[in-house]
Amino acid sequence: MDSALALEIEQVSRQKALEEEALRGESAVRQFYAGTTALITGGTGFIGKQLIEKLLRSCDVKRLYILARSKKGLSMEERLQLQFKDPVYDNLRSQQPDFARKVIPVEGDISELGVGLNDEDRMKLEQEANVIFHVAATTRFEEPLKKATFINVRGTREILELAKCCKNLRCFVHVSTAFFNATKTKINHTIEEKFYESPIPPEVMIQLAETVEECRLNAITADLIRDWPNTYCFTKAIAEDVVRTMGKALPVAIVRPPAVACTLNEPTPGWLDMSSVIGPSGILLSATLGVTHVVLMGDIMIALAPVDYVNNTVLATAWETDKRFKNNEKESKIYNISNSRCTLEKNLLCDVLHHPNTKQYATPKAVWYCYGFDTGSDVVFWLSTWLLHYIPAYVADFVFNVTSMKRPEGIKSFVKMYEKIYKMSMLYGYFLRNQWNFVDDNTVAMLNQMSKTDRILFNFDISKIDWPHYMLIWCIGLRKFIVKDGLKDSEYGMKKQRWLKIAHISFYTLFFGVVFSLLYLACRIFMSVI
């Protein structure tokens, strides 16, 4: 059996045994969700897809309403049908072939007033929705401020207006981000589980977005966001203030996940989709393909969490919020998924590439020898990018252009590919070189009060994760769901790496030989002129 497939089967078997044992016990969380009707915004995104799957597979919900809009020529129904073909739903489909009957798409747009609902759908949701998961957001760091405000700030206001009208609302969970307050002045400071002052009053920001022309708003964006690194973090910080002010009389809670990566266990190890292949997943993917060899990263502990652990936190939060509200504890609570318990050591990405065990999971589709290092220096990163990325890219493009050799699938130009990688590295470099310390007392307290059964079925105890093992799961997940090499021919992948290592050494030996020869010749010419 292929080593990568064996690793996946081992992880599946381990989790299945735990769940089978847990199902013999009583689950307060499952009981909370039994027969409920939930509304999910952002259900077509990375977190939303797995949240839908978990609710249907483990929670016996009555109905799920998914707020969605037509996109790229597809109706919301067609988009949802296409989404259900994603491998994340394979296990669910085998257990509940007709699971889709519980899922009802609702035409809407989180960026529109009233979230784009018609009167009939709005009335239906007001009557039926018991739990609302507000996951929708634009996570693009370079999103124009107008669009980011409409989606992240005004969208939160509008969905809370809907929540206020729901007759039988038991909980509203707002999914924020641990980096909502990751400002320059708070680097190396503590981020607590509390509300912070908004950078600008939400209604003022919304009015600016609604009344000021986009070109003018873009021109003043840098002055508006000031201490915040991008429009995403800035608008998520304002959105939390919307929740604070509008959620005072509602059973409201906020979950702040860090960077979200592939599943560890549920519904299958290593699952992720193309929308998640940015940030850490993009870095690891390009490294395991032999594309990226230098990472812009400082001496920090990276805040990271598997998506199934994030959604288990979200699901448990709704349960606890309902319980607290019934006990007349009506203060909104915030739950940080903390880097004090989900730390990925600084050199672990590079250690994984060089670890002997990793080599046996090498993909046969790698385009070059897999090696790498990290640096926190802009200068070193720029020089290394030219030496290890751009120069080989120009050589490769030249060779492919003048010969009949076939380019690797999906790569039209190596130079343009590295330009995109460099841009992404600079965008994420701010978060990979700076540290914030997230307090997670509320999250730990919630975990500790859960039953043994619930701690297995809705596990989010990140402190127990074996991170080197998780990195291997991440690698095979990238192979299976992104590279799509079928988790086979790993032995060939290992042999290919040995050949590529020889080619790598030969290329740079020749390259430096030519460079030094030219420098020597230039010096000789210069000396002769003098």
Automatic annotation (TrEMBL):
Tagged with keyword Oxidoreductase: yes
GO-annotated biological processes: long-chain fatty-acyl-CoA metabolic process
Keyword Lipid biosynthesis in record: yes
Location of the Fatty acyl-CoA reductase C-terminal domain: 388-485
Catalytic activity: a long-chain fatty acyl-CoA + 2 NADPH + 2 H(+) = a long-chain primary fatty alcohol + 2 NADP(+) + CoA
Residue intervals of the Thioester reductase (TE) domain: 40-313
Swiss-Prot/TrEMBL keywords: Lipid biosynthesis, Lipid metabolism, Membrane, NADP, Oxidoreductase, Transmembrane, Transmembrane helix
Main enzyme class: oxidoreductase
Transmembrane segments annotated in the record for this chain: 505-527
Protein name: Fatty acyl-CoA reductase
UniProt organism field: Bombyx mori (Silk moth)
Lineage, opening ranks: Eukaryota, Metazoa, Ecdysozoa, Arthropoda, Hexapoda
